User: Which sequence fits this backbone?
């Protein structure tokens, strides 16, 4: 790595510049310092997530109840899809480090292939994340939100989740559509949920084998399921609106804060991955064009590789704190 | 410097012939650790639900395994193992110190606010 690109021509003078007391070039060192500061940014986000989690310890959703989907397969498979995403990212980290290694050996053909595979891995990861977001936003079973913002979910007597559409009963309702001329001229009507709260209550009363699953965890970390009488009371006294899916203000899985952190942290990480893919593509074309061959050093591959590994490193922590702990 | 790599991990327990081999070895190790995490995450053995220092034993295992993974990614994929020790410490110690500090103050405060919400006079479930 001593093959620096720019030399000052005063290498023999002690204070003339061009010295590398840490045996790392300027660019590589700055990449490391950037990574340190970026690591602190992510720590800030993850520690803030921890703050909210400690604050709302007993009403925080359990990740295994939230991320249960695998593309093309129906059913309840927690962990499988994120494990796949983690593996994809680690694999692309490996191809990246192989590209760096091939670069050290000035092997243009191998570097090209490995850079291409790295870009591919990054794209697969990003698409998986897009799918994950889409599933999360669309939601699954639906829930009722209480006046205080907590979530009431529905289960059958075996403890399996029941979707609102399976028991809600349509009720005759009258509503006035909000238009610019009869309400706030600058506001549009909010999108309606598939069912109203009254329809859910009517359906709940008609189905004696549906129970309420509260947002509170018992001492074993499972969410408490109420008996039939308490369920009715909970739904009727506390329930307010129907929530379907998740966005920044509503979240059918738990407190909206959970969705906010999910969108923000995985989004910020996904943004880093996109930037990484972009940088990798630029370096990939530079490798093909022979830029580094002419320069006599593949150090740029190594620098961009550092960034790419860092993205993988962050994902390892996001994986732990969002999906495991 | 360019081609010098320290070709052993686990303090010399596992030696490699070339850098490429070491990369695959580290991948095998990282996949193994991830597999353990995923299996524990799916089955969540009851015995690991015991609380230890304010957190479930299972969560401690997850966090420790994550730090182990982070170590091998940094040391072998990012070649921290091959850097001059002064440079390594500059990056790692600074980061680790500030991260520990940040985590400590935020979690401490979060636990306190949670206690106030639960035992104080704030009603948040209605």
Assistant:
């Amino acid at each position: 790595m001593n093959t620096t690109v720019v030399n000052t021509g005063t290498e023999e003078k002690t204070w003339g510049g061009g010295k590398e007391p840490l045996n790392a070039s300027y660019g590589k060192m700055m990449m490391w310092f950037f990574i340190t500061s970026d690591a602190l940014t992510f720590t800030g986000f993850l520690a803030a997530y921890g703050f909210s989690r400690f604050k709302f310890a007993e009403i925080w959703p359990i990740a295994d109840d939230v991320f249960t989907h695998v593309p093309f397969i129906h059913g309840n498979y927690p962990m499988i899809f994120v494990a796949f995403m983690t593996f994809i990212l680690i694999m692309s980290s490996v191809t990246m480090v192989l590209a760096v290694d091939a670069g050290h050996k000035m092997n243009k053909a191998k570097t090209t292939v490995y850079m291409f595979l790295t870009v591919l891995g990054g794209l697969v990861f990003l698409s998986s994340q897009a799918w994950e977001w889409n599933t999360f936003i669309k939601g699954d079973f639906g829930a009722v939100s209480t006046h205080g913002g907590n979530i009431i979910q529905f289960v059958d007597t075996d403890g399996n989740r029941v979707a609102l559409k399976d028991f809600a009963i349509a009720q005759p309702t009258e509503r006035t559509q909000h238009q610019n001329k009869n309400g706030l001229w600058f506001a549009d009507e909010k999108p309606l949920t598939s069912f109203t709260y009254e329809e859910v209550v009517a359906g709940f009363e008609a189905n004696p084998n549906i129970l309420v699953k509260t947002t509170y965890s018992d001492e074993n970390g499972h969410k408490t399921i109420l008996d039939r009488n308490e369920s009715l009371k909970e739904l009727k006294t506390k329930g307010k609106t129907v929530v379907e899916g998740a966005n920044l203000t509503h979240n059918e899985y738990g407190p909206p804060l959970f969705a906010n952190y999910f969108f923000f942290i995985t989004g910020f990480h996904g943004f880093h991955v996109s930037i990484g893919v972009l940088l990798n593509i630029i370096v990939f074309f530079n490798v093909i064009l022979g830029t580094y061959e002419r320069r006599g050093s593949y150090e740029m591959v190594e620098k961009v590789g550092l960034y790419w590994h860092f993205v993988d490193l962050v994902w390892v922590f996001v994986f732990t704190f969002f999906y495991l702990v | 410097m360019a081609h010098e790599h320290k070709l052993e991990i686990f303090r010399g327990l596992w030696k490699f012939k070339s850098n490429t081999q070491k990369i695959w070895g580290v991948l095998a190790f990282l996949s193994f650790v991830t597999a353990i995490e995923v299996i524990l995450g799916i089955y969540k053995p009851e015995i690991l639900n015991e609380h230890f220092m304010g957190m479930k034993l299972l969560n401690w295992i997850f966090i420790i395994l994550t730090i182990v993974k982070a170590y091998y990614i940094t040391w072998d994929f990012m070649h921290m193992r091959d850097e001059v020790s002064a440079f390594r410490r500059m990056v790692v110690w600074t980061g680790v110190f500030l991260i520990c500090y940040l985590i400590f103050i935020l979690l401490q405060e979060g636990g306190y606010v949670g206690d106030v919400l639960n035992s104080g006079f704030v009603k948040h479930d209605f």
